[in-house]
Amino acid sequence: MHRTTAFAAARAAAVRRGASLLAGALLVLGLAAPHARAEEPHSLTPFSAAAGAVPPAPWHFSTLPNKTPTRFDVVSEDGRRVLKVEASDSYGLLAHRVQMPLNESTVLSWRWRVDQFVEGADLHTRAGDDGAAKLCVFFDFPADRLPLIERTRLAVARGVSGEDVPSEALCYVWDGKDAKGQMLVNAFTNRMHMVVLESGPAARPGTWVGERRNLLADYRRAFGGEAQGATPDVVAVVVSADADNTHGHGLAYFSDLSLVGSTALRAEARPTGNGTAE
User: Fold this and answer.
1) How many structural domains compose the chain?
2) 138 found inside a domain
3) Which pLDDT value is given to residue 214?
4) Cα-based angle 115, 118, 120 (whole degrees, multiple of 5)
5) Residue ranges, the chain, pLDDT below 50
6) How far is the C-alpha of 56 from the C-alpha of 52, rounded, in Å?
7) DSSP 272
8) How far is the C-alpha of 243 from the C-alpha of 129, rounded, in Å?
9) DSSP assignment, residue 130?
């Protein structure tokens, strides 16, 4: 009986953690400004628009109870105003609500750099599920179209968290050791898939790396099997960094993010095969 109780408690804790990864952003999305219009050429407010160190609205911060918050500050680096993300035995999300159709023209681009990776981080395990730099995209795929087991897990996560946990999340990661191009499923929840875009230190310390991703191509790679041709809207973009499992420290920087798309193009058209926009 003791073993059964301990197992149930551990499983419940894992579900809470998995739900929190997604629900944490929902806590602030509900308070965010109205949806950015999809026809706007750049629907994400630039970090460089901040008057001081606090990221500009509608960017909103969220953390979890009894957690040290990850720091998100707008600072001057290399003559530009950028977002500094520092995790120190901490957890935190910076979320921006949007509403944009997902089609072959939907492109997310940014520049980032990692100055310190979280020691002991291992994206394959729950104990090591930390990272210095993650950029996530949330999608509103209808839960009733998921397989029964996935609907059940999502319902449990929503019940535990008390939030309308997003049904699908895709995260881009700059990891310290996992090989570039890997697609991983989060150790706590398979509602979140991760793509390792960069691995290990840059060739030169302090180097910024530019990224440009075709979201439809990456979405199909991550969730194409369950989506079966459906293309949900993009509903949020989230910057994340955490070191609460390993009790470590991470430091990264993000430039202004650009999310562009068009409502005039059909989602059925094929994107480039490698996940990048041409």
Assistant:
1) 1
2) yes
3) 98
4) 145
5) 1, 3-16, 23-41, 264-278
6) 9
7) -
8) 8
9) -
CB 84 within 8 A of CB 179: no
Phi, psi of 11 (to 5 degrees): -65, -40
> What is the rounded CA–CA span in Å between residue 24 and residue 152?
20
How many C-beta atoms surround the C-beta of residue 164 within 10 A?
A: 14
Task: Specify whether the CB–CB gap between 110 and 237 falls below 8 A.
Answer: no
pLDDT value, residue 125: 94
Looking only at the bridges linking them, the beta strands covering 249-254 and 107-116 are antiparallel
Pairing of strands 234-242, 209-214: unpaired
Q: How many CB atoms lie within 10 A of CB 34?
A: 8
The pLDDT of residue 188:
83
Phi-psi bin for 162: left (phi > 0), alpha (psi -120 to 50), beta? left
- Tokens 């199909």 found at: 220
pTM, two decimal places:
0.81
> Is residue 109 in some structural domain?
yes
Closest CA to 83 of 66, 64, 63, 61: 61
CB neighbour class for 222 (10 Å; exposed up to 12, middle 13-18, buried from 19): buried
Judged by DSSP in three states, 18 sits in: helix
Give the Cα separation of 234 and 261 in Å (integer): 10
For position 225, which CATH number holds?
A: 2.60.120
Q: Which two tokens stand for residue 239?
A: 């910057």
Which among 82, 99, 83 has a CA at the least distance from the CA of 29? 99
Structural domain containing residue 186: 2-260
For residue 226, the model assigns a pLDDT of 81
Termini Cα distance of the chain: 58
Decide if 26 is inside a domain: yes
Q: State both tokens at 223.
A: 């969730």
Helix (H) or strand (E) holding 12: helix 2-29
